[in-house]
Amino acid sequence: MNTMLQAPALTAVAPLALEAVDFVHRGQPLLSDVSLRLADCRRTLVLGPNGAGKSLLMRLAHGLLAPSQGRVHWEGAAPRQAMVFQHPVLLKRSALDNLLYALAVAGTPWRHRRPLARAALARFGLAALARRPARVLSGGEQQRLALARAWLLEPGMLFLDEPTSSLDPAAIKAVEAAVDDFHRRGTRILMSTHDLHQARRLADEVVFLCGGRLLEHAPAERFFTAPDTPEAAAFLRGELID
Ligand SMILES: Nc1ncnc2c1ncn2[C@@H]1O[C@H](COP(=O)(O)OP(=O)(O)OP(=O)(O)O)[C@@H](O)[C@H]1O
Questions:
Q1: From the CA of 125, how far away is ligand 1's center (Å)?
Q2: For tag attachment on the chain, is the N or C end more exposed, with fewer CB atoms within 10 Å?
Q3: CB 58 within 8 A of CB 192
Q4: Considering only CA atoms, which residue is closest to atom 5 of ligand 1?
């Protein structure tokens, strides 16, 4: 029996550490001296005003960008990772074929691919859309397809960069349910959002960035009730900060 069909709990995922990370572009510091350790199977929500560096932090943590200074490393074996973006990057093929392709790239034996892809489509409420071209799916359906693709990879760590910012409430609910499913399966989550209500619903802990600096990394309850910095307090009050 292929274990992926049963969605087993993942084994413990090594901590991910960012140590004194700077990211400079054309002489301009965009992230400065960011140190962060992500451990256990927590849901970490990344918050901060526009341009704070949330997407950059996620891309550096996922390895899509290299730091200008400092280092990003796994304290142990690097797990499988997946990233879900605000606008899903999907192939010009059917929903089913997008998943089959991802499984092929992941090296899944061909005889397992179709049942796994079908099961993932069903899990994310897309069974009836299997043959539809992925790029004509609605925004919410595309995001569910991106999540189904990530689900198939059984990532130890999942990065989600503002995955719900252009979705309606029903689609947001589906994405949040999927995040819960990943979490229950043992996937560590790092997710950025602009939606404070969403952060309150999902976060075990919060990373707060402002002006390219990491100002807080705190348990969610403490961050939302008694933030340490005036910037975070102002952000939570809905004030405009740079
Ligand atoms: N590839 C890049 N090249 C140059 N500058 C970049 C690049 N990516 C991001 N920036 C700049 O870095 C800063 C942080 O960008 P980032 O996208 O990480 O912010 P953010 O917190 O995710 O913002 P938002 O909430 O608006 O999505 C911004 O000033 C942005 O213009």
A1: 33
A2: N
A3: yes
A4: 25
